[in-house]
Design goal:
about 325 residues; Rossmann fold; 6-stranded parallel beta sheet; 10 helices; 15 strands
Length: about 325
């Protein structure tokens, strides 16, 4: 590749955010000990917030957005990586305070990088992306909390989205009965194809929550928050656990202590951005074992870098099914 490369750059002036297609040089990049030639990125819900400025994800301007990237090392001053190594990066402040993945090159800290598992191509790694990696972190947390298929079903909210799609596929492969909650009934065949046993409408979990409801599932993966999460918690069975990782429905949580002190329910907070490297590697290795690549392909669509701004609007409007891969 030439020393000049293409990127999307977010700028802000007079409280108005703009996104521009630009050409940069290697000297424009931020400090880091590894330079990566980026081949693929993706569009997550958080990317939608960053690109549109709908939420203050970006904390430093100008900024190259894109919270994920995959590609090959070009140069490295880090002893753990050499030119040609295939790598993946999720979070660690990309698109917030450090230039992200919507560029043909990225310079980052080697400590942020995870070696790409041999089971995946860079495109497949970005079909997983932060959404799928977060879903796997949720599954690991549920396992650590003692949730097993023998204990009962697991409900996945926002099931046709990125986190939800991967969670449904992985949990089904692990032998769980998966209940998928979605606001898009037309996606029933898609979700059952990923392994869901039962589909319930979003409205069933979005009403005013009761302090305690009927015990319906042993575990949950929730990317919605707000009343949905409160309803999920109130219907979790004794000793069960809920992994919470998103806020598509809101940041509030109108619940009570009742499920926690009367049923021993655990609420497990999942942060993907600053997750320590050993857990990241564990999650990616488990994805290589427990995610069916045919199901991954079925939930994935590929777009060019020029398509990310429209995709940002679509993902916030709930119009994106599964995962979007961006060819850089």
């Amino acid at each position: 590749m030439t020393s000049r490369f293409k990127a999307i750059l977010l700028k802000k002036a007079d409280d108005k955010q703009t996104a521009e297609d630009v050409e940069l040089s290697i000297d424009d990049l931020m400090p880091g000990d590894v330079t990566v030639v980026v081949s693929h990125s993706t569009v997550n819900y958080k990317d939608g917030l960053a690109l549109t400025g709908r939420s203050p994800v970006v904390r430093k301007f100008p900024m190259i957005p894109g919270i994920d990237l995959a590609g090959a090392v070009e140069t490295s001053d880090n002893p753990n990586f050499k030119p040609g190594d295939k790598v993946v990066l999720n979070g660690f402040g990309l698109s917030e305070v450090h230039y992200g993945g919507y560029a043909q090159k990225a310079r980052v800290k080697g400590d942020w990088l995870v070696p790409l598992p041999s089971a995946f191509t860079p495109a497949q790694a970005m079909a997983i992306g932060t959404a799928g990696y977060t879903a796997m972190l949720c599954v690991l947390a549920l396992e650590d909390a003692g949730v097993t298929p023998a204990r009962g079903a697991v409900v996945v909210t926002g099931a046709s989205g990125g986190v939800g799609s991967v969670a449904v596929a992985v949990l089904a492969k692990l032998g769980f009965k998966v209940i998928a909650s979605t606001g898009r009934p037309e996606e029933e065949a898609y979700l059952k194809g990923l392994g869901a046993s039962e589909i319930i409408p979003r409205a069933e979990l979005s009403g005013e929550p009761r302090m305690l409801g009927k015990e319906r599932w042993a575990g949950a993966v929730d990317s919605v928050g707000s009343k949905t999460l409160a309803n999920v918690i109130s219907q979790t069975s004794y000793g069960g656990a809920v992994a919470a990782c998103g806020l598509a429905g809101g940041m509030d949580l109108p619940t009570s202590v009742a499920p926690f002190i009367l049923r021993g329910v655990s609420l497990l907070g999942i942060d993907s951005v600053q997750m320590p490297k050993p857990r990241r590697i564990q999650a990616w290795n488990r994805l290589a074992e427990d995610l069916d690549l045919k199901k991954l392909a079925a939930m994935t669509r590929t777009i060019p870098l020029s398509g990310v701004r429209k995709a940002a609007d679509d993902i916030l409007a709930g119009k994106v099914r599964g995962r979007l891969v961006v060819e850089i």
